[in-house]
């Protein structure tokens, strides 16, 4: 068994019994966070990153070309839930990075709050991602990447509003567009096009699009970048 560095900084490929898995190197060395398999290789703890549990992992598996999240990144994570993907992003950005993790549901955020107690680079924020002015006092530095995974009809507007509020020219946006949350009565492709049109109309530059099938049904992962017109 061995761990090979992926082309993306902080991401690893574990080869085991003819199979390959994505993984991140554990920031804390404290074992599993949400039930994921943990492997020790030469005294280093790696946490497997299942692509059916994380849309970012699925996007990487499906050929994502741009991965702006790296060591030292300042990330605003919208829709943090219980912290599954947040925990892997925490591994990647390391102790010099910060994740401002926004989750609307206090019940769901309990695990996120617990996770932040063992990982000092996670700042949990229980609030509504639609209203960035409400949680702006908790964000004390410019944001490099806004990462969004929320089940709301106005997904594009949430992303671009947060980018306007917290980002400067050149910052990145990453969003998992959920077609069924936008309008379950229309084809997924139509729902995707609606959100993509709104993103482009905002002046944010489109970088790439990755379909998340077969890991996630009717999901499109999109990477954008802030232009002067957008901010």
Question: Which value, in Å, is the CA radius of gyration?
Answer: 17 Å
Structural class of the helix and strand makeup? alpha/beta
Distance between the termini: 47 Å
Biggest β-sheet: strands ordered side by side in the sheet: 8-7-6-9-10-12-11
- Approximately what portion of the residues adopt beta-strand conformation? 25-35%
> What is the helical fraction, as a range of percent?
25-40%
The CATH first-level class of the largest domain comes to Alpha Beta
Give the SSE order as H and E letters: EEEEEHEHEHEHEHEHHEE
Number of strands: 12
Number of domain modules = 2
CATH topology of the largest domain: Rossmann fold
- CATH superfamily of the largest domain, by name, is Vaccinia Virus protein VP39
Helices, by number, come to: 7
What's the quaternary structure here? single chain
Which architecture of the largest domain does the CATH hierarchy give at level 2? Answer: 3-Layer(aba) Sandwich
Low-confidence stretches: none
Give an account of the 3D structure.
26% of the residues lie in helices and 29% in strands. By secondary structure, it is an alpha/beta fold. The protein folds into two domains: 2-50, Phosphorylase Kinase, domain 1; 56-225, Vaccinia Virus protein VP39 (Rossmann fold, 3-Layer(aba) Sandwich), CATH 3.40.50.150. The strands form two sheets. The protein has a seven-stranded mixed sheet, sandwiched between helices. Helix 3 (109-118) links the parallel strand 7 and strand 8. The longest helix is centred in the last third of the chain and has 14 residues, at 188-201. The radius of gyration is 17 Å and the shape is globular. The relative contact order is 0.14. The mean pLDDT is 94.
